[in-house]
Amino acid sequence: MKRCIRCHAALLPTLGLFLAVTAHASTYCVHNGAELGLALADVSDGGIANAHDNTILLAGGTFATAGGPFTFNSSSGFALMIEGGYDSSCNTQDMTPGLSQLDGGGTSQVINFQTNGKIGVRHVTIQHAYKVGSAGGGGQIYLNNAVAVAVFADNQVIDNTDTFGTGGLTVFGVGTVTIAANLFAGNSAPAASAFSTSMAAGSIIYLVNNTIAGNTNTSGGNMITALGGTNAGGYASNNISYGNTNGDDFYLYSFQTFEFHNNDYHALNGVPTDGSAGNIDLDPKFVGAGDYRLSGASPVLAGGLTNPVGGLPAVDLDGRAFPSSGRADMGAFEETIFIDAFESP
Predict the structure, then answer these.
(1) Which of 105-119, 168-182, 284-298, 315-329 has the lowest mean pLDDT?
(2) 241: exposed, middle or buried (Cβ count in 10 Å: 0-12, 13-18, 19+)
(3) Helix, strand, coil % (nearest 5) of the chain?
(4) Residue 112 forms beta bridges with which residues?
């Protein structure tokens, strides 16, 4: 049963913000930026729901920031999961990309999350950020405990701008990071225009089936994706980085190990760990006109590993099960048409 989280009766009909409560978890259903801000305050340190696991479900629509990013900060060690694409009652989820949009309006960062527990962000679009003076235009996630976990999957990070460092997303701290089945496109910054990681010793990073395209490095030649972490470990599998401007597709620094398997990219600055294999440098032949799905002529169809380190995403960015017909494509979209001129079931 759902009930409103606030006790101020005059506000309840206006907010439309609900919470389902059990002994161990709370689930919020939110519909706009104001409601999302209230829910995040409740699950952060000092909030009424901080001391246990929580889930925030986003209805379809635009969640506009209000002068600053959506912020979550918790030292409780519990989990927060944020899932987009729901109907107004949060009973049915539609995984079509772009249904739940977190929007910076060209004036602010979009998300700023910090935790020593687990943070999951799935099926949202992070867009139209503008950040000055520090990295993480679209957003930043900080893990502050070796057992902390971030899962960022099935999201779009598009059209974000940063004047200092990373344009799309930056993840830093210590813990385990999975970035899977996301589209990073149209982001711009003077350093890592798409995304970056900067993780401490003992951390591990999994990059699986992401599509990174149409991003611009504004410093005249640097990097598109930066992967860093002193004595951390990492694995990149089944990713596509293509059609970006003014930068190496991947820039590696300070890692103890980082293996690259079955990725499609043009330029890598750094040396992947021995054992890396199956990487190519080919036009992936996207559908085109801003559509980064794979065409039937794509050379990366069935080119991905079905058992990458860290595991395949459960679904692709369109919500289809990974892999389709016993195969795995590269990138965030699992194509179901035309491997051998036949449509896959």
Answers:
(1) 315-329
(2) buried
(3) 5, 45, 50
(4) 71, 140
Q: Give the CA distances from residue 35 to residues 14, 31, 149, 176, 274, in Å, rounded to whole numbers and listed in that order.
A: 10, 6, 25, 29, 49
Give bridge partners of residue 86 from the DSSP assignment: 59, 93
Query: Which whole number is the average pLDDT over 323-331?
Result: 86
Tell me if the bond preceding 323 is cis, omega within 30° of 0.
Answer: yes
Tokens 């990070």: give the residue: 157
Q: Please state, in angstroms and rounded to a whole number, the distance separating the CA atoms of residues 250 and 47.
A: 39
CA angle 139, 219, 272 (to 5 degrees): 75
Instruction: Measure the CA–CA gap between 127 and 116, rounded to whole angstroms.
Output: 26
User: With contact defined as beta carbons under 8 Å apart, do 328 and 320 qualify?
Assistant: no
Q: How many other CB atoms are found less than 10 A from the CB of residue 333?
A: 23
Please name the helix (run of DSSP H) or strand (run of DSSP E) that holds residue 207, with its range, or none.
strand 204-208
155 pLDDT higher than 70: yes
Distance of CA 36 to the CA centre of its chain: 18
What is the token pair recorded at 192?
């890592």
